[in-house]
Amino acid sequence: MSSEHTFERDVERLYLAHNGWLKTWLRKRLGEAADADDLAQDTFVRIIRSRSAIHDLRQPMAYLATIANSLLINRWRRQAVERAYAEALAERPEMHEPSPEERLLLIETLVEIDELLEGLSPRIRQIFLLSQLDGLTYPQIASRLGLSLNQVQKAMGKAFAACYANRFE
After folding, report:
1. CA atoms of 163 and 112, how far apart (whole Å)
2. Spans of all domains in the chain
3. What tens digit of pLDDT does each residue of 123-144 get?
4. Whose CA is closest to 108, among 137, 77, 139?
5. Are 28 and 53 in contact (CB under 8 A)?
6. DSSP structural state of residue 118
7. pTM for the model
8. Which of 39, 85, 123, 147 has its CA 20 to 30 A from that of 4?
């Protein structure tokens, strides 16, 4: 029997044994059955894509909960970015309204930036965003935040290092 066939059988067993439990677990956190069903499906899709051995899991529910929780966090992060984007658009004078495609690309980019900067202090994130999204120069950022130019440069160095590490390591 091929390892491919064995993996598929292991996923099927895991699904049959724990999908109902996972959906209930997600419903408690989300409050909606449809969203819970979607995230449960996404959890199993992630397992299939990872191709990690699952035949000898000691705690399959903990494994599923960990993956589902990660998906929940990503979902909540994306929703927060979408809300912030909508608020930022509402505050701007009416200009060119982005198309749905442009809006989706912008939100995807913002979510990716948010993930790249995860773990940095709020100050470093703010400095990075002022530079990269608002287009402010380092001296302008230093003036606006009451920092020295050296502090801004060091913060940007940390932000770029985090982006590089998250992207390429």
Report:
1. 10
2. 1-96, 117-169
3. 998 898 888 878 889 999 999 9
4. 77
5. no
6. T
7. 0.60
8. 39
